[in-house]
Amino acid sequence: MPQRPIRPKLGQNFLVSATAQAAIVDALGDLAHRAVVEIGPGRGAITALLAARAARLIAIELDRELAPRLRQQFAEQGGVEIRNEDVLETNFAALRNADPAHGKLGKLLVVGNLPYYITSDILLRLFHFSGDIDRAVVMIQREVAQRVAAEPGTSDYGLLSATAQLYARVEKLMTLPPGAFSPPPQVHSTVLRLTMAPRFAELGVVPEPFIAFLRVVFAQKRKMLAKNLRNAGYDAARISSALAASSIPSQSRAEEIDLERMARLFRELLRS
Ligand code: SAM
Question: Is the pLDDT confidence value at 219 over 90?
Fold first, then answer.
């Protein structure tokens, strides 16, 4: 089939390294009895490997020319569905519930060499559906991967790290140079494995209000946590006593505080 022009606006950098294609699919684990969702299959670099191994494959491609090509390519392969839609509108719970094996395939596995222009939005969407997803193996820009995986107390740690680590265990699997793609992007890329393991119950917090609180404390990353809280309207005396009760020094910045102490601070502020 003749190649059509690439759409850079859709983040189309196709993975051409066969070793990386195989490693990404291997990182999902055994697929024989699993339903897999691929985000942005593009020209099918990893789709063929997935289709051969998974019990069910749903591939979500926004490009209205690539989607019908993929449909044609996989027409003979049972258990493969190509959806021409925006992954930011995909309802992962509905995909899981539409399992023709009536729930026997368990939670979804998600994989994708993501379109980098919407990386954070896709990750947030996966976290929103964390109850329906077992794990996700995603290729993203190296710098963003470093932020997702960063530990508290490092300069990369921020709202994205805290949010991701509330929902998932994060592993960095490999980093690829631009030459592994065609056309080559201007950045290096890293494959992450996110094993969904939400920590809200263990931390004693409710997801939405706690994430809204994280947005407040990280609002101005370089400012003191107390200052960000004051800017959001919290009373100074309440802040001081809640910081002390949470063993957080008053001059701390949010990036220095682990999730356990941050959750404690949140609970203390709710109480006082
Ligand atoms: N998986 C292929 C590969 O590795 O060669 C293509 C990866 S390419 C980096 C990203 C793919 O995501 C492109 O095929 C692009 O058309 C598709 N895409 C971009 N935005 C999308 C969206 N909002 N929803 C679904 N797919 C999207």
Answer: yes
pTM beyond 0.70, yes or no: yes
pLDDT surpasses 90 at 1? no
Task: Quote the ligand 1 centre to 66 CA distance (angstroms).
Answer: 10
Name the domain boundary from 147, 175, 198: 198
Q: How far is the CA of 207 from the centre of ligand 1 (A)?
A: 29
> Is residue 93 a contact partner of residue 128, using CB atoms and an 8 Å limit?
no
* Nearest to 144, CA basis, from 159, 160, 124, 128: 160
Burial 56-74 (b: 16+ CB within 10 A, else e): bbbbbbbbeebbebbbebb
Q: Is 111 in the pocket of ligand 1 (CB under 6 A)?
A: no
The stretch 134-146 carries a mean pLDDT of 98
Ligand 1 pocket, residue 14 CB under 6 Å: yes
Asked if pLDDT for residue 197 goes beyond 80, the answer is yes
Residue with tokens 């989607």: 67
Q: Kindly report the CA angle at 124 between 243 and 149, in degrees rounded to 5?
A: 65
What pLDDT is recorded for position 221? 85
Structure confidence by residue, pLDDT tens digits, 8-50 = 789 999 999 999 999 999 999 999 999 999 999 999 999 999 9
Residue 272 above 70 pLDDT?
no
Q: Check which CATH number belongs to the domain holding 137 and give it.
A: 3.40.50.150
Same domain assignment for residues 244 and 126: no
For atom 1 of ligand 1, which residue has the closest CA? 41
Q: Which of 198, 222, 249 is the last residue of a domain?
A: 198
Residues 114 and 209 in one domain: no
Q: Are residues 46 and 166 in the same domain?
A: yes
Substitution site in 16, 47, 63, 190 for ligand 1 pocket (most atoms within 8 Å of beta carbon): 63
Domain that holds residue 101: 14-198
Q: Give distance in angstroms: CA of 8 to centre of ligand 1.
A: 10
In a domain, 170, yes or no: yes
